[in-house]
Amino acid sequence: VSEAAKRLHLKEHSVLDGSGNVFKLAAPVECKGIVGGDDRHYLLDLLRVTPRDANYSGPGSRFCILRPELINAFVQVQATEASKPKEIISQGAENLSTDSQNVTDADKPDLAKEEKIEDVKELASAANEATGSKDDIVFNPNVFTEFKLAGSPEDIAADEDNVRKVSQYLTDVVLPKFVQDLCTLEVSPMDGQTLTEALHAHGINVRYIGKVAGGTKHLPHLWDLCNNEIVVRSAKHVIK
What we know:
Elements: H1 2-8, E1 13-16, E2 22-25, E3 32-35, E4 41-44, H2 68-102, H3 110-130, H4 153-183, H5 192-201, H6 209-215, H7 220-239
Antiparallel strand pairs: 1-2, 3-4
Helix pairs in contact: 2-3, 6-7
InterPro entries: CLU-central, CLU_dom, CLU_prot
Pfam family, one: CLU
Organism: Trifolium pratense (Red clover)
């Protein structure tokens, strides 16, 4: 389970059961583990392997979760940003190393050269600390739910803040970029199915199709396509 959680960017955390007992999980609370008739281990009820969408926190939005494509994209962006200080520090260390090699005994005393070497070591150490690993970016799938978390208030607040950041990344970065790609025809859906596939490929849930429609009003074919999909999906819920 821990290996699967690592690949899915799920955080190991503690929850409380109905009796107040503390259990450690690296999965949604609903997840179940069984041993099948073939003596193999299986995990069931993995609907919420990604966190709940912080933009939909109402009582009827329990299963409004973020898509795994969005989680992967966000993790990639965070890892890239974390690596930028390393590149800058490494460049500085390289420059200092070059300078120290160019210093001759006639130009600088031994003490100055030793200080240069110490600076290089400090910068190299800082570069290692700045290295961001994708595996270190994890999310608690049970925040913003009715389940009781057993961690400290600070840990719970930090977990909630992480999920809010992903949800904000969706609305502030991913959605505007997707609408822009539609307007420039970099993404050209032909029907409801290809529109849905394009949304999912970019980590966008179909529930955001109204925002996509609002950004494509000036393009009649996209406006009609989005509205047709909205009407069909709404009718499906009414008829059911």
